[in-house]
Amino acid sequence: MCGIVGYVGEKQAANFLIDGLTKLEYRGYDSAGIAVFDGEKINVAKSVGRLAALKEKIKNNTPEGVMGIGHTRWATHGRPSDVNSHPHTDCSGKFAIVHNGIIENFMSLKEELIAKGHKFVSETDTEVVAHLIEDVYEGDFVEAVNKVLNRIEGSYSLAFMCQDYPDTLICTKKDNPLVIGLGEGENFIASDIPAIIAYTRRTYIMNDGEIAVVKKDSIWVTDRKGNPITKKVFEVNWNAEAAEKGGYEHFMLKEIHEQPKAVRDTISPRINKENTQVVLDELKWTKEYVENFNKIYIVACGTAYHAGLVGKYYIEKLARIPVEIDIASEFRYRDPIIDEHTLTIVISQSGETSDTLAALKESKRLGAKTLAITNVVGSSIAREADQVMYTWAGPEIAVASTKAYTTQLVTMFLFAMYVSGLKGTITIERTHELLTQLRLLPDEINRTLEDVEPIKTFAKNYAFNNDVFYIGRSLDYNVALEGSLKLKEISYIHAEAYAAGELKHGTLALIESGVPVIALATQKSVYEKTLSNIKEVKARDAVMIGIAAEDDNELEKYVDHVIKVPATDELLIPLLTVVPLQLLAYYAAITRGCDVDKPRNLAKSVTVE
After folding, report:
1. H or E element at residue 297
2. Which end of the chain is less enclosed by CB atoms within 10 A, N or C?
3. Which of 259, 319, 276 is nearest to 436 (CA)?
4. Dihedral angle at the C-alpha atoms of 480, 484, 485, 487, nearest 10 degrees?
5. Euclidean distance between the first and final Cα of the chain, in Å?
6. Is 604 a catalytic residue?
7. pTM for the whole thing?
8. Which residue out of 46, 254, 403, 604 is catalytically annotated?
9. What is the pLDDT of residues 110-154, one digit of tens each?
């Protein structure tokens, strides 16, 4: 769960390394470091904490040289500290490496290397790689890297530097992302595209098992056996400004306001002009193909899991196929019942979520067809799945996901409509009605964003409560789970979401005078039941904040405050009700003085198990 950068060229490497790591701060990290070859030796500078600490450390003594590697670390083995920071070197200082992932057999390798006289200085699994390459090196850099890869087990993106090769970086990957940026008289390595977008738009997306020898004027890619691989250039079509805040105070707020565009971009190419059919050119399924499935699994983590809960409802309601949903970290350990009649849908914003990737691979091993829903073209999950539906949300920098979630909902809805059309479980009239309302959603999200003053007021009044509860039924409950997660992850308020009908089964004991309770009441099919639950809570003197459609004139009679969203079909209204919940979490975090974009203990992409 870290960032990797590398540079070889004609300019001072440290400048790019620091800038590249700055662009990768969204990935989450607890320390940072760089290693630069000055023509004679490798100089390493690293520091625990934010990049600002590293910049201050090297301010008057910046390592000089035209080749280097850099890293931001998220601790997995060993506490955050200067010594545990990357890059790591061997005993002689001849090699420097950076690593993303986990070396699973590091302890046995470490014991073996210590017995041979190697001296370790850190607690990390990664340092083993630096000493191992020193141990196997016989003058051939590429051969030594291959020998290392033959010994280590686990997941990794790795970049190597050797002082015997003053013009060469070597990088490779397994289960963790890595890209190479193609320049003129210089080339770049990074764990993610934002690190290099200001320098080049031409990239190679590395695949598992590939090894790249990167020099300033050439890049040579081979497989593990040394067979050359011809790589296709991937042209990045993002604007550089898309990775910047764009005038907003925080990335999260910017990305909340980008949701209308993200939803429109995700919808537009996938509906015909008459609003009578969903067109998914990326699938091109047939009625016979769909009818082969007797069960669908949806597997995801965190916010993506909450999107999956809504997706389950969509598929079962519209396509009438049984759906099970599971948390990815639990899925493969419970021996799921999967065969060739199963479809497994995995959802991941980054496409690199380790648990979700593992669940995908397990499903394939058991014979299931697989479909990935992700935001990142060329990501590990996108490459591993049989087929992919992309959410065209653009880069999402803030750790707390917003536009990725709404585009995941849209994508799940489009998928459910597509399958129901193939199966004939929905009429043309109903299809036209739903798709017409779907096209209106971007403008309706914009309207939801226009008046945030009441939300700011709520946040100011209730942000210092110790507990906040969310309740809802049906799709409202699923959205309440996401609203609760947003509040707890960025404001650190204890927040829980409950199915409103479960209140009498224990939860009601938690309600006391003055406790804020946010009640979602947009599902007409269970509206009266929800209203009854709201009355129960209000009778215990809770402070009630209601979320309702703008044509609802009843809810305000029973709550202390009400937030209205545009009225639409109850299947689609989750895309509107989640927006005020995102804003409520955002302004609560601001009120409490929290670091909105980089909440404590969290990272954007969970790339280790």
Report:
1. strand 295-300
2. C
3. 276
4. 140
5. 10
6. yes
7. 0.70
8. 604
9. 999 999 999 999 999 999 999 999 999 999 999 999 999 999 988
